[in-house]
Design goal:
alpha/beta, Glutamine Phosphoribosylpyrophosphate, subunit 1, domain 1, Rossmann fold, 3 domains, eight-stranded antiparallel β-sheet, six-stranded antiparallel β-sheet, globular
Amino acid sequence: MCGIVGYIGSKPVKEILIDGLRELEYRGYDSAGIAVLQNHQFSLFKAVGKLINLEEKAQSYESTGFSVGIGHTRWATHGKPTELNAHPHVGQNSYVVHNGIIENYQELKAMLTSKGVQFLSQTDTEVIVHLFEYHLKTSPTPFDAFTKTLEELEGAYAILLVNASADNTIFFAKHGSPMILGRNREGETLFGSSDAALIGKCNEVIYLEDGHYGFASSDTVALFDSKNVSIALNFTPLSENKLSAQKEGFRFFMEKEIYEQSTVLSDTLMGRLHDETVYFEELDSSLFTGISEIKLCACGTSYHAALTASYLFERHSRIKTSVEIASEFRYREPLLTPDTLFVVISQSGETADTLESLKMAKKAGLKTLVICNVDNSSMVRLADASILTRAGIEKGVASTKAFATQVAVLWMLSLFIAHERSTLTPSDLAHQIKILRSIPSIVKVDVTLHEQLRRLSKRYLHGHGFFFIGRDVFFPLALEGALKLKEISYLHAEGYPSGEMKHGPIALADPELFTIALLPQHKLYDKTKSNVEELSARDSTICSISPLDFDKADDHIRTHMHDDYMQEFFEMMVVLQLLSMEIAVRLGNDVDMPRNLAKSVTVE
């Protein structure tokens, strides 16, 4: 998501910072900024939108000689995408850039406000620079003030901070968000939230660990661990291949995007989960006034997210919900009534059929909402309201993290509406929020499980097809699992509700038909188990995915025991993504660019 760069040296700092930020554009952002400290004086440039806007703002600025600089690309979490909310954030004589979330920022802000501090932005980040300057008044050195500041911060962060009294120094810290320290043969020091920003500028780097912090100056780098113990600088060589760097050591972008789902889901939830309710600053409650029905409209993977959401809206919000395939909706002369909220879902915001369906709903006078990953896309500009999924740029054609973040946003929206309509008790709502908070940790890839799936994949390279089956929300997950396999392996696969097997599809059952069975403990386990046993009795090859043993399975992928079916949903989602990818890899296919497909479908 957000990107960070930093530089200490004598080269033209503006060009180095903006070039570094450009290498981080693939993460997605809606504003950008840089701050340069030279001879105890700051120069600050910020702009909303793409980097070209920042370049225009800073066009006349040139630096000569030694300087220190920090830069940032921001995806709005706290506060809208405006210049005031863009990083770097400013104090009296200090600037800061930050990725992550300061969970106790409201308490810190209240304390600082009581001391007379005035805040300019709506962000959590601004408390860092003001807290630093508050401690600076009573600290012997700026680094002591920085250390005291870190002790009071709660949450996740990667921080670069500069202060005018130490104009050759960058203070840095890492906890829960990535940060890399680099150096080159010319004695320059650089920072980046991804090594892509450092390729060609550094020859060796340190990948900071959680709890690491310190300072870097023109002649010194000091690094400390979470116990405040000084640690040695163990640099490692940095690759010179930019594309490889963007993959961050993974074989494919798809693999990287599966692994980073934990991070992007944290970004998706950030600032939206309160203790007892869900908060979307993008939405006005009037959007739901007079609404008695929700119509969800999407294509492909987004359609599967919509199907998943239909269960959650009716279950939590107690509101009538229907789901439309956009390419069909456009031509079937649908009945549209003004009490319907029309919700479109798209990774790109440019999907042709979905965009035209949105135009139809607007023309019919319906209130409209878009769930999207790309700010300022056609759908975002057209709809009455929008919620961004914050997944960052997804380079793999077959969507993974886009699906995960769409489901998370729609789940939160079902709870937001439930709160508006008082359809869940406070305790039930608090329970759902607790489950939501656990999802980023649940989707972290277990490397042992990944290795099991890699080895298992060699048994599923032939046959005449796959059934992916599940019930309730696990039916749309089965559809999504089948789609992933089709897209990248080119093997025939279908998703079905488990209970539909006996209504026709079971005629295909034989040893060369592979059944991928989703058997969650907490949602209709016995019913689904019975359906799978019917297939097993007809000699279908069964691969079960469940936390519980299943003796009829030919292969069993054991998931963790959880408290809620949605936790099982997200863990099984990762299993299906990895299994599909490993089958495609064994078949020698281009996982990131499967044949006949495009990332954004902008034609009918």
